[in-house]
Amino acid sequence: MQKDIVQQVLNHPKYLELVKRRTRVSMIFFATALIIYSGFILTLAYLPDLFAQPLGEGWTMSVGVLTGVLVVFSAVIMIAFYVRFSNKHFDPLLEEIVRDVE
Amino acid sequence: MKKTLLSAVLLSLFAQPAFASTGQANTSAIVMFLLFIAGTMVITWWAARKTQTTSDFYTAGGGITGFQNGLAIAGDYISAASFLGIAGLVYVSGFYGIIYAIGFLFGWPVVMFLIAERLRNLGRFNFADVTAFRLGQTQMRILASSASLLIIALYLIAQMVGAGKLIVLLFGIEYKFSVVIIGVLMMIYVFFGGMTATTWVQIIKAVLMLTGGTLLAGLVLYQFGFNADTMLAEAVRVHPNGLEIMAPGTAVSDHPLNALSLGIALAFGTAGLPHILMRFFTVSSAQEARKSVIWASSFIGYFYLLTFIIGFGAIALLVRHPEYFTTAADGSFNMLTDLIGGTNMAAVHLSNAVGGSLLLGFLAAVTFATIVAVVAGLALAGAAAIAHDLYANVIARGRSTEAQEMRISKISILVLGVLAILLGIVFEHQNVAFMVGLAFAIAASANFPVLVLSVSWRGCTTRGATIGGFVGLVFATVWVVLSKTVWVDVFGNIDPITPFPNPGIFSIPLAFLSIWFFSVTDKGANAQNERDAFDALTVRSQTGIGRSGAAEH
Fold it and tell me: What is the ipTM metric for this complex?
């Protein structure tokens, strides 16, 4: 019974599409997060002077502090986009598969 | 009862001396503390009536919404160590403190993009359900529970010791007594109310913390006309290190590999913390798990931004208040070393400076709520590791009844509570600073690689996962024990054996490599069956068909 359902899903034309697209999308998101994060960590480890500079004439805030704040925002924004994307593209696909199988 | 409490609150609003200092009983702190306990006890009583089955006990029956779970995750994740600790780090070294906050936050994209949804679809009570889905039950449960119990013990000791000391300062009671209060409260919440009570304690704590943090940061910014740069300029002017607080600092540039290694462990550790992963089984579906992450990361990110303001604000403002420092005979003091209660108290003193004793009392209550919320989550995850992994699936080999498993988890809660109290007392004078870092390193080096590869790589076998997981666990632990933070600072040796304290940059790749190597060389018949079972795993993880908790709700 359990095995039947697995076979049924595996044979469903939309299933392969779902797995492929979802894997690709989450990998792209993960890579983006990794690039932003490792960019931040590598810069502060190896180019600390870049982060130490003030934003401009008359500013105390440094490039590093502002970047840090932006990096915080980027994490939340990336997750928000991923959730939106999933709701819009993957959930309908998924619903279709579940409806056909059950 | 309610009436007297209410009048006590009102009374305290007016009867407070303006300069209640920390270290002595603060009336508004005590009133809010009592209110918090009264409220959470009512919730526990309500939750206890709903807690009948193991599913109720471990996962609140799967009936928590994504939004509620997001709040609870924020409440569970931001411990007193990270809330007061990051504000304290910013107070001492400015920008350096921001690095930690960003590391903790970037655990969330990793959780979201790699595991959250699959975790929810595959598991029932804890993440060992997921790693054992197609791999050997016994090996995976033993690995998961060893790593989990070690992580929980380290976290618990760090929380108990830090908490005990904070409560001494905030409420003016004895250390041992404060450790006992935390332990007993935690036992009551979890023993009677299980995950339902734990979740609501965490939600209340998150709301209190976000409110308190917003108020505090708002009042700080108000002093500088809501101009963050004016505040930073003042901070740079008064800080002994001046402009250096705007830069990454020498701690990083002297050991760039250590910074990198720390960064990796912080970002990947979150995805291996047993008490955090367990929260994903309290929601009904992968969609709700997704919602949990977006809410959790929003609250956590927002709160870290507040701690930056609080940390820099503390630099700028505390120096105007000699009464918060131990001063020399001539009235002089060093703002970094002489702060009463240590630099972790920067946020607490700041609340007194900008909001008076009422805000101080509020923040003290928030801190207290934070400690019990985190400790309760840890204890529950520990009980699941003992009763669900070790007892039900290893010792009884799945033949135990639900009532038996429930009884073992409740006994575990009592044992863990007593143990937490004893460890808190034993470690009172020990240096526990390394413990949370080590917990993250183990989570990132043992749990995370096994979890990720077992759900996303067909070739992963029981042999590979077991050896790789233990290699990561042992390597990370030994490395930290031989590093400066333990070998020198705790054991008193002169020179550390490992070059820097954070193992992540070696231990995480090593664990992945070991899992890969011992899987591809695994030619047993079982290994082939496990690879074949990957299709069934993918179908469940992608679609949620057959997922636990889906049918009942």
Answer: 0.94
